[in-house]
Structures are given as C-alpha cells and as structure tokens.
C-alpha cells in the first residue's frame, strides 16, 4: 500500500487494522476537520507526501516529528490554517514541493523563505493573493505557479529567483507590464501565461528573446492574428503552446522560420479550423509535431 486516504473518522479509527505494513506508505490524504495531525500518522515514518483537504489545522503536532522523509505538502480548502505557524513547522523538514489551493490566501507570510529546500511552489486558485518579498531569498525555487488578478505588473521579486526554470501565471487579467529585470531569469526554460489580455505580448517576447535557456512558451491570445512576429527572436524555442479564444483566421507564416520548433499545440476555445487548413499547417511544418485541440 503506497497511499492511505482518510476521509471519515471511521477510516481513521480503523487505521491500525487497515495498514499492516506502514513502512510501505508513501502518501497520506487527510480530509477531516482536525486541528492537528492524528497520532497514528507517526507510524508512517517513510511518508513523503501529505495532502490536507478541508482541515481546521492549527498545528502539525508532535506526530509530525517522526515524518523525517516528508518532502511534499499540498493543502486544499483550509482557509483557517495559520500559515505563519504552518511554514515555521514545515521548516523542520526538507520540503521540496508545496501546493496551496482554494485557501483564500491574500498574502504569503515572510517566513515562507525558511523553507530553504523548496523547489516547487504552486499557489494557483487563490485569486486575491499578493506575492510579496518573501520570494526574494528563495534561491532554491525552480518552479512557480500562481494567479495574478489584481497586479498590473508582474511582481519584481520574481526576477530575483536565480534558479527559476518554470513560471506559470494564470488569470493575469490586470497585468499590463513586465519588470525590466525579467531578463535576469537566466535559468528560465518554460513559461506559460494565460488570460492576460492587457499584457503587451510584443514587449514580453522582446524580453524573453535574451533568455537563451527558454525552450517552451505558452500564451493565450484572443486572435491568432495578434501573435507578434518578433517570436522569431526566440531562436532556441522548441515548444510553442497557443490558446486562442476566437475562431481561426489565418496561420502566421513567420512561425515556419522557428528552426528549433519541434512541438506546436493549438487550443481553440471554439471549433477547430477546417481540415484542409490543418493539413496545410502540418505540411508546412514537416519537422514539428502539430496538435489541434479544444478544451
């Protein structure tokens, strides 16, 4: 048994009988309104992943101290958690991946930076969140996913993450500009940005053109005609993902000149282009895998 799911108190009471070999358990999903981790969880001393759903957690408690191999924590729909204390307790572990979803978080406590081994941070589905300066000292962070409905400019402290390889921004409805220091993200390999219609895509591409490490770009535009021709500046780009809201108009010929492109995905909000047009696009990109899809 690699995963244990606890969704009711009966399952919790029967835990001893259900799990004969706790040393084999690597993941626990706890979906109970508890204020601390149950004592029985300390049996899973090789636990690597902890998922908390709809909890009322006030503290991890002494039971957590035996979870020496805990490296991934994901929290769903638990707005009552005191994240200042939560991060302080997590700092005792070597946490590599942290996900906080639907928790109504408006800001990240400064002590998030105490998670010195954190490589992946996913804070999507917290629509009003404000990314603060606590990110600035997180030099181990390699992957960041977040929503940005209110900010007009991408938070400048993202540019201080020297090892950031993957950046995904969703619901960037207010975004209008990118900080100049964005060009400092010399390790960035993958960037996806969705529903950011006020953002100047031409300006974004100009900045990305200096990042020779960038291999994948995912962007959402209202119409394929809005794609800027300066995409050709992304000479090392290997994968391009395009989310297009309006019906297909005309395929921009300049994409044929992205010499290293080996994957091109179109996601259309409505219907796909006519079969004849799709075949023409594929024929013009013989070295590229072309995918057409709808949500």
Notes on the protein architecture:
The protein has 295 residues and is of the alpha/beta class. It contains 5 helices and 13 strands. Strands 1-2-3-4-5-6-7-8-9-10-11-12-13 form a 13-stranded parallel sheet. α4 links the parallel β9 and β10. The protein is elongated, with a radius of gyration of 22 Å. The chain starts with a strand and ends with a strand.
How confident is the prediction overall: mean pLDDT?
86
* Beta-strand proportion: 15-25%
H-E string: EHHEEEHEEEEEHEEEHE
Content-based structural category: alpha/beta
Shape assignment: elongated
Question: Which percent range fits the helix content?
Answer: 10-25%
**Whole-Å distance between the termini?**
35 Å
Widest sheet: strand ordering:
1-2-3-4-5-6-7-8-9-10-11-12-13
Q: Count all strands and give the number.
A: 13
> How many whole angstroms does the radius of gyration measure?
22 Å
Instruction: Tell me the major beta sheet.
Output: 13 strands, parallel
Counting DSSP H or I runs of 4 or more residues, the number of helices is: 5
Classify the oligomer: single chain
What order do the helices and strands come in, and which of them pair?
Elements: E1 3-6, H1 9-13, H2 15-18, E2 27-30, E3 49-53, E4 72-76, H3 83-90, E5 97-101, E6 120-123, E7 143-147, E8 166-170, E9 190-193, H4 201-208, E10 216-221, E11 239-244, E12 263-268, H5 275-284, E13 289-293
Parallel strand pairs: 1-2, 2-3, 3-4, 4-5, 5-6, 6-7, 7-8, 8-9, 9-10, 10-11, 11-12, 12-13
